[in-house]
């Protein structure tokens, strides 16, 4: 296979190319990959791809050499210098000391202690979601599971109940730049929206915004998400005490930092679990011996979630930019060049994981990198694990005989490892 397949979004419609990753780990663990035009998106200069676990860890823990700030963290470059300057204000795209400062502002809301206080209500919500479909005998698990991270984020951020589906829609709009099925997604019930949401939606672009040259505008730009940022500012005027929004308002963030922080929670925080929960369940259903073991031994739920995350990482890759000339994996990387770490490959590294292509819910230790590593390790990892455990247990405990009811449909994306549909059935009727 050509290494460029690791870049092309269409590759992932058929599944993550683990065979290609294994070949490259063995023969070209750090290699140069072209960045051809994809649809309406222009070609880029190419990048260095990093496939081995140890090298991925090294890149992620040395921001002084591999910067999140210089070119941001998506493979594709921002369209304009102004776009780059804007996204640099996102915590995800900052280096220390700015990253340390902005992370501290909201970190208290995601400590293990803070998450433990939410665990009971998250478990109750997961049970309620599963019970809402239990009588049907079948469902699209992607649609079912998507509500839990949206509800949890709305709860943590202080978003009114009637507005929470807006978080889902905004995330879909961002995904839509690679998968057109999501571009115009709208699931929020207009009659349930708060007055501030209705006022913000007036600023929603009627169609995908385009640059003067006709190219589509980056979906993460201020123009493309004008309604979301208007909503963020309106919500900040009435923050619930102790909520993430209250911490953001009181934390001394700049306007750009505030808007990007809202994006990070509303979109990125939502997408990780919207991918991870259905993908994890699909993996379990495709390994019936592991499913039976977990049904017999529910105490393995925590270990099972870790193996699901290793086997189905919600995020495929992240980018850095070299701050100076540096050697990595026998290759000379020049200052300013893109460096893309493939978490999905690192999670199957045979030098770290015994029999890495085997799904083993008893695997220990399990040093997967699905939540990243180093200064940018996922702030919401504890919260994500609680939600995955809650949804998995509610599903297995309350939907006996759970099985696939058709072929899942994968997301077209070289960044998000997601499913668009996962039809499932339960009960005794076969």
UniProtKB/TrEMBL annotation:
One of its GO terms (biological process) is cholesterol catabolic process. CDD domains: CYP142-like. The keyword Iron-sulfur does not apply. It comes from the Bacteria. Keywords: Heme, Iron, Metal-binding, Monooxygenase, Oxidoreductase. Coiled coil: none annotated. One of its GO terms (molecular function) is steroid hydroxylase activity. PROSITE patterns: CYTOCHROME_P450 (PS00086). SUPFAM superfamilies: Cytochrome P450. PANTHER family: BIOTIN BIOSYNTHESIS CYTOCHROME P450, P450, PUTATIVE (EUROFUNG)-RELATED. Belongs to the cytochrome P450 family. This is Cytochrome P450.
